[in-house]
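Thread: "does anyone have the structure for this chain?"

Original post by V.I.:
We have the sequence but no experimental structure in hand. Need at least a predicted one for the grant figures.
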Amino acid sequence: MKRMVDVVVALLGLVVFSPVIAAVALVIRLTMGRPVLFRQVRPGFKTRPFTMYKFRTMREAYGPDGTPLLDAERLTPLGRLLRKTSLDELPQLWNVLRGDLSLVGPRPLLTRYLPYFTERELVRHEVRPGITGWAQIHGRNASSWDRRLADDVWYVEHQSLWLDFRILVATARIALLGRGVVVDPESTMRNLDVERADRMNPATSRQPLS
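Reply from O.Q.:
Generated one for you, tokens below.
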């Protein structure tokens, strides 16, 4: 039933938002050039990798040594608007149709974070990841890592269609109001792997959590 709802809603979403998707794609093409979409491999159900799609929000910019500039320096005004309104997430409706994502579930994080999850936190991969989730309506990316991952596990242990409906309604309200969004997460928190490595004994500071 959950998969059926995902497919129906994703199809309707692509149809209803097709003018918005086309307009955003055109503006990105005119202001930042190609590519219009940002693609990145993320761990999905049972940690199986898949390619996630989002609208591009950052320009290509490099320092004198050839390394990319910080996200804050590459993020464009259009990109900030897309992130604040969550419009950059619209291409993920295609991921839902493909079966990579669900409408609701733990957000897919970076592959390099996998060794740093605790055994309990790995439960988040027992369901399809989602476009939105319990953590996203309780602080979104303004919450601490421990809180966000605990919320993901709570969702897996309490999931239901009614809970999914509540999360979708709350997500729509938050997106419209633009609350709880940090458009540049690196400005407020460290990456999960860096944060957790620093918690460990200095002698094993680069070893993942067991």
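V.I.: this helps a lot. The chain has a mean pLDDT of 86.
O.Q.: and Residues 2-204 form one domain.
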